[in-house]
Structures are given as structure tokens and as C-alpha cells.
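Table S5 (text form). Sequence records supplied for joint modeling of the three-component complex.
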Amino acid sequence: MSTTAEQLHDHHHEHPKGVLAWITRWLTTTNHKDIGTLYLWFSFLMFFIGGFMAMIIRAELFQPGLQVVDPMFFNSMTTMHALMMIFGAVMPAFVGLANWMLPMMIGAPDMALPRLNNWSFWILPFAFAMLLSTLFMEGGGPAAGWTMYAPLVLQTGDAFPFLIFSVHLMGISSVMGAINIIATVLNMRAPGMTLLRMPLFVWTWLITAYLLIAVMPVLAGAVTMLLTDKFFGTSFFNPAGGGDPVMYQHIFWFFGHPEVYILILPAFGIVSQIIPTFARKRLFGYASMVYATASIAFLSFIVWAHHMFTVGMPLAGELFFMFATMLIAVPTGVKIFNWVATMWKGAMTFETPMLFALSFVVLFSIGGFSGLMLAITPADFQYHDTYFVVAHFHYVLVPGAIFAITAAVYYWLPKWTGHMYNEFLGKVHFWASMIFMNLTFFPMHFVGLAGMPRRIPDYAVQFADFNWVSSIGAFGFGISQLLFLFIVIKTVRGGKKATSQVWEGAHGLEWTVPSPAPHHTFSTPPDVNLMHKEAHS
Amino acid sequence: MTEMNTVPAPANNRLVAKLLLVVLAMFGFGYALVPLYDIICDITGLNGKTGQVSAAEVVGPDESRTVTVKFVATVNNAAPWEFLPNDVTMKVHPGGIYTTSYRARNKTGRSLVGQATPSVSPREASLYFNKTECFCFTKQEFEPHEDRDMPVKFVVDRDLPSHIESLVLSYTFFDITDSSGKS
Amino acid sequence: MRHARAGLTVLFSGILLFLATPALAEWAVNMPVGVTPISREVYGLHMLIFWVCVAIGAGVFGVMLWSIFHHRKSRGVKAASFHEHHMVEVIWTVIPFLILVSMAVPAAKTLIRMEDTRDADLTLKVTGYQWMWQYEYLEDGVSFYSKLDSESNKARQLNSGIDPESVPHYLLNVDNPVVLPVNKKIRILTTANDVIHAWWVPALGVKKDAIPGFINEMWTLIEEPGIYRGQCAELCGKDHAFMPIVVKAVTEEEYRQWVAEQTGKSEAETASL
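The corresponding C-alpha cell record, covering 993 residues in total, follows.
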């Protein structure tokens, strides 16, 4: 590969000096690596802010009785924690990873729409500044849950229009980003990079991008209807005018269910990159993995009402959604089995990315199992709106999405920075995260089954012991992430020099460019056919 | 570097024109949804929308079958009305026309405007519950301390599935005096 | 010697387990079996799907664990090169599908039974308010509000200084409980006054949203007298955590007495069942 040519070319790419120049660079960059970096740092910041809110929640729930905050503020913490984590941490992190890696993985010089890329990012700081500012408004921040059910959400004070507007902005950012990804993947693959040769991370992001375009407008519609119900005399969800609060739930969850797959499919892609590398063995069943991902994406559109089983649906509806939801376990199971088959008879080493990826497989599966239990409608009547649900989605989101993102950061940091991270510290971060995460969320299964509802700042005394354990775990988990911040900053600033390949078992175009990757890569498309022939000769 | 854009300008213009047309079509579709929704709700009985039949269409009661109808009333948002069903329960034959009424009383010394919305349980029964005359969705203006009876004439469809032996008709009464849309 | 050691171990473990039982009850880790036919069926479904998941999990994680120990580079193994196998893929698609079907059948049966509200003996209308419940007994003409009892309410105030452990049934006690007769099918209608609430008593195995402007229904048949506590199960504003439900299930006679007290009529007059 013409890596030396790339390096020579890049020597001419010096960034101008001075504070103003620095600000201008980051404000106006259209470079996918820069924009990826912006998204990742932004998401890290949102992760800490959302995490801080979680600490407030767990501090209040540490003991029975109300000691820390009043119930209204507590409700705004649960609401904002979710909004920050979902829209501010997980989604932008995945977009950041996509921005950094997708063009390199397919041999493209940049994203298809670089200026749109810049705008997609810069909307986000405005959206979240607006959202966070609502905490200081009359009536406090939004406190009706991230699901914003009508009519409760219409009781929100001054924060209401800002909540709606910031959700709109986040949606626009996501949709524009998704358009960019689809245009890039479908149009800018290097010659020889057929769709079925693409890395799994590209595939999962391609499918996720379609999901985003399909459902973010639905969320926009739902929140716009909330806005008009409150300010313009409509009655979409107001029974007095012939409307139906349940219709809001249908519309929201029609967005909401594909949204949770948007939150996990890129994670599946990341794990599918990492396990083969550290097992030194090709991903088992590549084609099945693609089809399974596509099946999950398709099925995600026809299961939304499993979030609403207690709403008073006709029996036929309940049965349909129960069966369809259970069905999703099949392609998801296929993926898990394929990852295990990739490990099987490999030659594994257990660097930090692999540790996070393997714990993803185990812990996400546990989240999947509780999800299967929730799918059983008559049982769901006992689980719905309890901590059992909170346990389920935190298992799929924390050791699911978050651990995958963390794994990806460790995996690709050497490529981004040119330095190896400190492996010992990485392992400490891993074990601390693993242990504290389980301490935080496993007991929630128990208290949920024992009858503790969700979204409550205070609880009956029989739930006290496990809540105490959860809170300790949460504080530990929070502190562990500070170690992660330290590791990342340390690696950016220096460390053992990384090679192009970085990892012995790594395969793919991104590992053919130098580390750190030059500001512009693949200005000349690589010859994938030639590489493929050489690799398989 | 990447190749310069070699697509000619007319092709771009055609694409823009097509895309604008799609946007217009979507707006049109949005407007058409208003009558479309009415049709869909009528056919499926969604939103508790019951059937509306004219008295002339009714065939006659099926004496072999008895269905219990319970009448329930709720005042929304602690609005200052007393709102009660005059009959709590009624045994009816599907196919026969029956009349009942609800009584509403304005408890305050001011004029108020109210509106009632119906709801039927079980949901699937709403398709077979036809009101030939009712006060649903009609603005009701009340003088101070006024009370009035509001009639409901209904027919339970003979096609009511056999496993449904009893159903509930519920009205919720809303205060819409301040009809700026805020609930 | 070995037998003696084994025997002692068993004895010790038995004693420990026996002693742990009351502790286990405190550290409640599972759903209650409940006191209605439906709650028992639901518990059965819950345990069935739970054990199925445990079995699958043990299998998959067991394989992973083995692989982690045996297929590691530090053991000097060389990675194999297989990366697909159609038959295996088919098998591990079809078998989970069949397992799911076997779960779906009993689940559907229970669900159908849960939605069968025919032949109810009594109708209770429940209205959710911010932040309390209103109960109306349609046949017996009883109507009252039920809210968090005053002791709990005092203790739950921010920095009240009152230890929740000192309050009986903290946050699960009300001023006016729902009184219901055992062994009668009770149809429960739910609606709400303002925002969406949800009525839930775990021991009865039923939960349904209470939606303003709409009426929902569920049914229950309580087989054992006792006091059963539940909570609102849909976020409804600042005091969502503070509007519990208490159901007192009593014999039919005691129920008639209670109705008579509530309505001021004689017991004979209230016998409508």
C-alpha cells in the first residue's frame, strides 16, 4: 500500500497556529477524523454529565426516606439522565466512531457530504446546552420521563418548548448523519470493496442509518403533536377533544423500539471487529451476521407495543406483539452463537478491547434473557414499570452499548493517536467497570421482581438492602470512568509508539494506514481486489 | 483527490424538481389524512369510536341473548360538575333500541361549558355498540347551578361476539369553558 | 474419614441454609406466587422462562469459558481457519425458534384467560388521581378516596428525620383500603382524573393503566383472605411514589358487614350477590 506516499503527502498538512486558528479549525472542519474526534469528546462529556445525574439518583436511593432531593427534581434527574445518555452519549459516540472509521474501512477519502457532516455535529452542543438550561427554568427541567408521555408531559413548566426544540435538533443531527453514512457506504467504496466484503461495523452502521432515517421523523412528529396540543389548541392526545393519550405511546414507541436497536447495532458491529482480531480467526458466519442484523432491524418495526402491554390493548394485539417480540431472540441468538464460534478454536489473547468485547457477549446476553422474559405478556404485567425493566435495559445499554464503545475506543485509540494506551491501567478500568456495573444493576432484577416500581425517589423498606448495594456499585462505576478519562488523555499525549497494524490479528483497510492515521487517507483508492487475492493466496 | 462532479446541470435540476414534487405530495398526504383517519376509525372502532346507525336500520331484538351493560361516569380534572349515570346497569337484547341518560349538574355559580367523551370496554365491543343518539363530543353549556339529563339511545349489534356477555359504557366529562386547548 | 467429612459438610450446609431462610425472605429475590389463579399461572410462566434462560445461558457461557481457557495463544495453540458452517447455522436458528414456540403456547393460554372478564360478581371502578386513588363499588354504592397514610406521609418528607423502618408498612399503607370478598370474580375498571396512572397489586398478578377519558378493565379472584399491597405503576408526577394501594381480602360475610357500615344500610339490604 502507498503508505509512504500518504505520509509524505501529509507532511504538507500543517495546521495553522494560534488560538483563533485552533477554534476556526474545529468549528469549520470538514475532515471525517476531526469530526469523529469532536463527536467522541462531546459524547464523553455528555456521558459524565448524564453519569453525574445518575449519581444523584443513586444517592437518593441509597437509603429509604428522602434525604437528598425533592421528588420533582428527582423525576427531572431520571428524565435528563436518560435523554443525556441516549441522545448525548451513546448515539454521538457511535456516530463519532463511524466518522473516524467508516471511510478508512471502505477505502474512501472522507464522508460523502463533508460540510453536512460538520453541521450534523455542531447542532448537538446547541441542542444539549438548551436541554441542560431547562434545569434552571421556572418549573424545573422536564420530569415526565424521557418517554414524555401525554398528558403528564403537558404539565411541564417553561422547559417544555425547549425540550421539544432540543429533541428536534438532535433528530435533525441524527438524520443528516445517517444520510451521510448511506451516501458514503453506497457510493464511495474502493474498487473491489463489494458490499459482502465490507467489515461488519460498516454493515451494522449502514443498517442503523436506515433505521435512523425511518424513525427519527416519527419522534419529531410525536413531539410536535405534544407542542401543538399544549400551545395551539390541538387535541391529538387530549380526550376532551376526542384525542387519545395512548396514541402518543404508539407513535413514540414506533420510534422508540427501532431506537433501541439503533443503540445496539453499531455495538454488534464493533464486537464483530474485535473478537476476530484477538482470536486471530475470521468472523464465523459473515453472511449470517449480515442477514441476522437485517432481520433484527426489520423485526424492530413490528414489536413496539411490547412497551405498552398494560395500556389496555385488545387480546389480538397483545398476542401478536408477544410473538413478534419473542421472535427477535432468534437472529440475536444467531449473532451470539457466531461470536462464540469465532472464539472457538481461535488463539486468543485478552487485551483490554477483547476483555470488554467478551464481557459484552456475556452481559448483553443476560440483558437479552431478561428481555425475553419481558416479552411474555402475562408475566410482563408483573414486570412492567418495575426495576426489572430498569435492570434489563441497563444490562443491554451499559455492558452492551457502553462497553462496546469503550472497547472500540481502546481498539482504535492507537490508530487515532499513534500511541498504545497503558495496558495495565486499561485492565484495571475493565475489571472495575465489570464488577461495579454488575453490583449496580444485578440487584435491580431482584427488587423489580419483589415489587419495586420505577421512577420513584423513595421506596418501602423491604427494598432497602439491594438498593444500598446498587448505589455502592453505581458510585464505584462512576469513579472507574474517571480512570478511563485519565487513560484516554494520557494516550493522546503520549505512550508506546503504535504500528500501522497495531494488533497482530487485525485485518482491514484501516490497519494498512500509519498510526496515527494521516489527516487525509485513501486520497487514492486502494486496490481491494489485489489485497483480497494476496490475503487468500 | 476525488474526481470533480461531472453530472450535468439539467440532470441536477430534474432531480431537484422531482424531490420538490415529493415534498408537495407528502404535504398533500398529510392533509388527506384528516378524512382518512375518520374512515379508518369508523371501520375499526379504534379510539372507542362506536358505530353510529340510524334508528331505521335496526332489525329488532334478539330475545335469545342477554347482554349486561354497565354505565359509568367520571368527571375529569376534578371539574366542578356532578356527573352520574341515571341507570347503573341494564340488561339488554342485542338488536333492540334502549334509552338511558346521564345527569350532569353545574356545582358552581358561574356559566360553564362541558363536553363528554365516551369509552367502551372491552375495546372490541366498541365496534358493536351503536349510539343512535348521544351527547358525545357536543359542547354542553350550563347556566350556574343548572342540572340536566342527557339521553343516550343505543343498540348493541346482533353481531356482538358470543364471548362478550357484558360491557361498560363510560363517559368522561371535561370542563372546556376555558377552551384554549390547555387541558 | 472421607464419609465423615462429607456428612459434616452436608449437615453444616443444611443448617446454614435453614438459618438463611428468614434472611432470604428479607432479601426477596423473586416475584411472589400471589393469591389468585392468574398470579399463580404467571409465576409459573415466569419460572419456566427463567429456567429456560438459565439453561441456555449456562450452555453458552460454559462453552465460552472453556474456549477462553483452552483456545488461548499463551497455551501455544494455533488458530483454526473455519469461518462458516451452514448446517450448524440452521440448527442454531431452528432450535431456539422451537424453544420459543414451546414458551409461546402456555403464555398465550394464560393471556387469553387473563383477558376473559365474563361473569364477574362485583365491579370495582378505580380512578387514579394526582396523587391518590378513588374507589367506587358500582353494585353496592360505596365510594371513597384512598391515599398514603399520614404516618408514612410525615416520614417521607424531605429530611423528615423520621426513620422509615419505624413506620409500619412505610409507603405501602393507606387511610382507606379496598375491601373485597374472597372467591368472587371481581371486575376492576380503571380510569384517571388527570394523567395516566396504573393500578397494580403484585399478589393479585394484575396491572392495568388508568387513562383519563378512557375505561380499561381487568379481573381478579382472590383465593386467600389477607392484606395485599401495591403501588402506582405509571409515572404520574411528583408524588408517583406516594399513592399506594391496599387490598383487604375478607370473607363474604365480613365484606357484607363492611358494605353495610359504608352505606349505612342493613346487611340484608346489601346482599346483591
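Note: Residues 65 and 458 of chain A are 6 Å apart (CA to CA).
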